[in-house]
């Protein structure tokens, strides 16, 4: 996978049913997130969270999670990066790719 795209296995139910626990998400580190995108947010404290971006006004991110349904706000100084999710798949998908590459 090119350096532009990163993968992350989702370990929480915060975005269920949009994104299921143990699904792998692919996100684009070179594209800017837009309102209504599902996003990967890297926080300055080292944590990473997955949410839906409601809006960003330059000072704060308004976010949504689904399980439980909740709205939250993060200050821009607490966010290191916010990247759009471009795909999701089962974790087994990567195992299948690796197996095909080994067989080739």
At CATH level 2, the architecture is Ribbon
Helix-strand sequence: EEEEEEEH
Helical coverage, percent range = 10-25%
What is the overall silhouette? globular
Contiguous uncertain segments of 5+ residues: none
Q: Which structural class fits the helix and strand makeup? A: mainly beta
Quote the beta fraction.
over 45%
Strand order of the largest sheet: 1-2-7-3-4-5-6
**Rg over alpha carbons:** 15 Å
**Number of E-state strands:** 7
The CATH top-level class label = Mainly Beta
Number of domains: 1
Name of the CATH homologous superfamily? Umud Fragment, subunit A
Count helical runs: 1
Cα-to-Cα separation, first versus last residue: 17 Å
How many strands, which pairing sense, and closed or not: the largest β-sheet?
7 strands, antiparallel
Write the layout of secondary structure elements.
Blueprint: E1 5-9, E2 23-28, E3 38-43, E4 48-56, E5 60-66, E6 69-75, E7 79-90, H1 92-103
Antiparallel strand pairs: 1-2, 2-7, 3-4, 3-7, 4-5, 5-6
Domain Peptidase S24/S26A/S26B/S26C: 2-71
Pfam families: Peptidase_S24
Protein name: Peptidase S24/S26A/S26B/S26C domain-containing protein
